[in-house]
Design brief:
Elements (H helix, E strand, L loop, with lengths): L1 H23 L4 H5 L15 E4 L4 H5 L2 E4 L1 E4 L2 E2 L14 E8 L6 E3 L5 E4 L4 E10 L5 E11 L7
Parallel strand pairs: 4-5
Antiparallel strand pairs: 1-3, 2-7, 5-6, 5-8, 8-9
């Protein structure tokens, strides 16, 4: 009995699939799925732009710096090198500099920048939006004060 039910279910599924396939016959992938998520652009892309928020107040009171950012006209992706310049829409990543240090790091996660362990006092963070070859496209610098431990405002 169970075998007949299983076979019957399989045959009904196959029949439904055939009927669905007949309705789709002659339609292109774009007709069924819509436009491709990544497609060549017909016009030049507008300039990439970086928007950076001030550190979140709650974590900052506890000494943790959470900086949210977003990019316009660029997707943050972990893809690097000159061939990645051909990707449309444009892709890139960020570089982060803390307190004008001569070193920085690159990040392609798209997640907030989180800093812990900065000493109490004034600091600044520069976030640079970069293309896949690390060429800067836009940047923003934010200044903030990490309060002394135990200090609440």
């Amino acid at each position: 009995m169970l075998t007949r039910v299983l076979i019957s279910s399989v045959l009904m599924g196959a029949s439904a699939t055939c009927a669905w396939a007949e309705r789709l016959d002659g339609l292109s992938a774009a007709d069924v799925l819509g436009p491709a998520a990544v497609a060549p652009l017909e016009h030049p892309q507008p300039p990439a732009r970086l928007i950076v928020d001030a550190p979140l107040a709650g974590p900052l009171r506890k000494g943790a710096v959470f900086i949210q950012y977003r990019a316009e006209n660029l997707r943050i992706e972990p893809v690097f090198g000159p061939d990645a310049l051909k990707v449309t829409p444009r892709i890139g990543h960020i570089h982060v500099i803390v307190d004008d240090n001569p070193w920085h790091w690159a990040d392609a996660s798209g997640e907030p920048v989180i800093l812990v362990g900065l000493p109490a006092g004034k600091h600044k963070v520069t976030i640079i939006l970069a293309d896949p070859t690390h060429k800067p496209l836009d940047s923003k610098t934010i200044a903030f004060t990490v309060p002394a431990q135990g200090a609440h405002h």
